[in-house]
Structure formats: structure tokens, C-alpha cells
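Researcher: Dear colleague, please comment on this protein.
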Amino acid sequence: RTSECTRHRGGVCSPEQQNIGIARHFVRTVYCPPKAAMRATAALGGANERMHMQRATVLAAASRTPRDHDVGVMPRAPLSTKPHEPLWVFGYGSIVWNVGFEYVSTRTLCARGFRRRFYQGSTDHRGTVEFPGRTVTLEHCDAREVVWGAAYEVSPEHRERVIEYLEKREKQYDARIEMDLFDSADEGAEPVIRNAVTYIATPSEYNLNWLGDAGDLAEQIARARGPSGENCEYLYNLAIAMRDIGVEDDHLYNLEAAVRAIRGD
């Protein structure tokens, strides 16, 4: 993307500047703001979306080092729901087996156009700055695919407290998005919940701990350990939780099997 550099600076930028330019382009067209991101994703189509994801993943992550940071570093778009309304939170990772906040009800639901992947580095829970662990995020994919998880209804009374809790817990995730949730994977299904909140990690330059895909995912998870415990425990608990609510996820279960084989568990 030397064109972006020459357009703004009148010259050819360095590889590092090109990486940042590509990451910014990716954020503008796909991830910010959340509702525009959904429209952009639909317009681009599955093939173009994957191309943007792969390009930004490789280049934007090349020049950063995983590290922890304070709450409030990540930009957050305002929520569309009002303070007097209930808040729905969609859990697809550790929240499914370790909720951590008060809720009124829960439902097993799915989000369309996403898949679960262990692409986010963890230096505050399941790894360290020296050896980051890996936690799940949601990756945009073909709109025909769905990812299942647990949705939690939070009362207006506890809404602000839960948001504050989630901001601390998910501080290393750079995007807080709202999404429609479905009780069926059928393409013609109508949403049963709108504007559910969840946190995802992206290749954005804001995300200091993005790791992306790797050929040794299982080895990394098998070895990593952080303040909250072993990385493999996170993986195992998530796999158990997904099975308990009847979710099929080949990527998750194959990764679990690979880590167990490495560790002899």
C-alpha cells in the first residue's frame, strides 16, 4: 500500500509504515464502527473478506510486541441500547464456563458470519509478555456459517456494573460490537435478539496482542501459563462447556485433542 503513503506524505513509506497503513485500511473498511463493519462485510463477500483478513493479519501484526495495558486503552463505540433497557451479552469463550456477572436468563444462540478461532494473545490471564497464551476471538467468515455460544440477559439494574466488569475482563480485546443472535442456523432464520454485546479481537493496530493463525497453535497452548492458570485449562474448559450445551465445533475439538496429545492428558 505505498499509494496510501505517497498520497499523504509525497514519498514511499517504509515496510513498517506500510503495515500500519494496511491495518488502518482494514479497520476503516471492516471493523469500525460495528454496524458499518457488518454492512461492509456483507458487501465485500466471503472471498474478499478472507483476503482482507489474511493480509491485515500478517502485515499489521509484524511490527508489534504483545504486552499488557490498562483498562480504557481500546476505543469503544457507544452502545445502541439505552440505560433503562436490558443488556444481552454473547459469550463464546471463557464467559460460557466462567460467567462472572449477574444475569437474569441465558439462552444457547448463534451469531451468523463468524467462526471461533484462537488468534488473540493473552498476557494478562493465560500467558505472559514473554510467552503469550492464546484465547478465542470471532473471525468474520462466510455469512452461511454460524458460531454458537451462550447469551446472557442482564437487568437494567446491573447493566452498568456488568459493562464495567466486562471492560476490565476484556481490556485486551480491541472491538466491542453488537450483533444479532439466532436460535437456528437456517439461513432464513430471523434474529431472536438484536444488539447483543460481545468483545472480539482483530488485526487492528490498536490490538497490541493479536497473534493470528500459526502452524504451532497446539504447541503454544500446551506450554503457555499465566496469572489465571494454564492455557490448556482454558481450552479444555471451553470444549467441555460447548459440549454441555450441544455445540458442534470441529476446530475447537480438534485443537483440544492435539493439545491433550502433546501434554499426555
